[in-house]
Specification:
Structural class: alpha+beta
Number of strands: 22
Radius of gyration: 23 Å
Shape: globular
Strand order of the largest sheet: 13-12-9-10-11-14-21-19
Helix content: 25-40%
Length: 495
């Protein structure tokens, strides 16, 4: 069994910091890369060493510089590379080049990246493993005529999906024949821009389903286990916004069936490392395979909170060759337990009052929540940080845990209200509306939740406690003394 001493993270922001922390706890040295635009980003200072990558390249292209990243890893005597999520995390060419240069890739094997990166091939694998799938085209759509013929036979609504990639890009819902051709063109164009592959396929659209994903971990010795499920139904334009673990919608028999199906699929594929099998569950409790994400997920944090298991450390140990029992610290599936409920909110620098337009600029002031049962995973979230227009708008992942779902929701609302972020707009007012909405609290959410509830997008003026606090501090600095007017109390000033 190998033992890595030096691990490079081929990523940036909060996921790079997350992996660095896991490495440090395992006693391993960490190496960061950063683009020119990220010269002052926090993740480069969280590693033991950091190196500029992609000189002369654009801000995105720097993190996609396969040859440059691997060459740097060789020069710096790196043992393994963790790709995080996004960028090169699902790139089979990158994984193969790592192997060819004697560097371990902390993730699935290249053949699995190719298999599950092709959504049509993944469908075929799911069918072979006995998983139910929605009716769909057996291969990428070759022409508009082929798409029309399939649609006429299957019926509407349909969904156009990119063969490569994920994250909601290259997807369009089609409700009648008049929309089909333009949807194919738009989805293909978006997929080409995002993934370099314009191929798309068609599936029967499941109306207002639950989006359920199962976290699976597999080792190189043939053992595969699940860490239960997450409910990712709170979505906006196919982008996840709030996630819950476990799902409030699944009965115990259905939960067992879905989790067993996920394990069966990845065991049949001979999969290794962490992966997520995603399903749609309709109103009748019928589930359908959707796709496999062969990497660590943004929302892995809430699974860690309800199971107490470290998914990233398990990834590293499995890549070293450790059996699953050692990598997870739990001997069998039966010993993996979940306790309580966890919620994740993706706090982004988007303006909810302006159709969630991404905002950029400098964070003038930053204060976050905290306390028992709170986890914050952040990248450049601090006073003075620059929010770049070149990268994802996510600022911090706020996660809360409690024994009951109501307790986790109340804790999340309190944490969101504690945030004070000045200089850029954020989606916090919108998230506050979501986590206290009656349908959310009752567990009655599906992928149409945000569309069905326009009141979620109404934002009353917030009482700005930060402004009053700044006035109080200014009074003290100018006048000296406690700065409290006669007849007032400090709590009244800060309300």
């Amino acid at each position: 069994m190998a033992s890595f001493e030096r691990i490079l993270v081929a990523n940036r922001g909060e996921i790079a910091i997350r992996v660095f922390r896991a490495c440090t706890e395992l006693g391993k040295q960490t190496v960061a890369i950063y683009s020119d635009e990220d010269s002052l980003s926090l993740h480069r200072y969280k590693a033991d060493e950091a190196y500029l990558i992609g000189e002369g390249k654009g801000p995105i292209e720097a993190y996609l510089d396969i040859e440059g990243i691997v060459a740097l890893a060789v020069r710096q005597r790196v043992d393994a590379i963790h790709p995080g999520y996004g960028f090169l995390s699902e790139n089979a060419e990158f994984a193969r080049l790592c192997e060819a240069r004697g560097i371990a890739f902390i993730g699935p094997r290249p053949e699995h990246l190719e298999m599950f990166g092709d959504k049509v091939a993944a469908r075929r694998m799911a069918i072979d493993a006995g998983l139910p799938v929605p009716p769909g085209t057996p291969s990428p759509v070759a022409s508009a005529e082929e798409a029309v013929a399939f649609a006429d036979e299957t019926g509407y609504p349909l969904i156009v999906k990119a063969v490569s990639g994920g994250g909601g890009r290259g997807m369009r819902v089609v409700r009648d024949r008049a929309e089909l051709v333009s949807a194919l063109e738009r989805a293909g164009s978006e997929a080409r821009a995002a993934f370099g592959d314009a191929s798309v396929y068609l599936e029967k659209y499941i109306t207002n389903p639950r989006h359920i994903e199962v976290q699976v971990i597999a080792d190189s010795h043939g053992s595969v286990v699940h860490l239960f499920e997450r409910d990712c139904s709170v979505q906006r334009r196919h982008q996840k916004v709030v996630e819950i673990a476990p799902s409030l919608a699944l009965t115990d028999p259905l939960r067992q069936e879905v989790c067993d199906a996920a394990v069966r699929l990845l065991a049949r594929a001979g999969y290794v490392n962490a992966g997520t099998v995603e399903f749609l569950v309709d109103g009748d409790g019928q589930y359908y395979f959707m796709e496999v994400n062969p990497r660590v997920q943004v929302e892995h944090t809430i699974t860690e909170m309800v199971t107490g298991l470290d998914i990233v450390q398990a990834q590293i140990r499995i890549a070293e060759g450790a059996p699953l029992a050692d990598a997870l610290g739990v001997p069998t599936q039966a010993q993996i337990e979940r306790r309580g409920y966890a919620i994740q909110c993706r706090v982004t620098t988007e303006d909810p009052g302006n159709d969630f337009m991404p905002d950029t600029g400098r964070i003038l002031a930053y204060r976050s929540g905290g306390g028992f049962g709170v986890r914050l995973d952040a990248g450049n979230a601090f006073s003075g940080a620059h929010v770049s227009p070149h990268y994802d708008s996510m600022l911090v992942k706020a996660c809360t845990w409690a024994v009951t779902f109501d307790g986790a929701a109340a804790k999340m609302l309190r944490v969101l209200k504690e945030f004070r972020i000045r200089g850029v707009k954020t989606n916090i007012p919108f998230l506050e509306n979501v986590v206290q909405h009656p349908r959310f609290l009752a567990g009655e959410v599906d992928t149409a939740f945000l569309t069905d509830c326009p009141e979620l997008f109404e934002f009353p003026p917030r009482r700005d406690r930060g402004t009053k606090l700044l006035k109080y501090i200014g009074h003290v600095l100018v006048n000296g003394g406690p700065g409290v007017p006669v007849g007032a109390s400090r709590p009244e000033l800060l309300r």
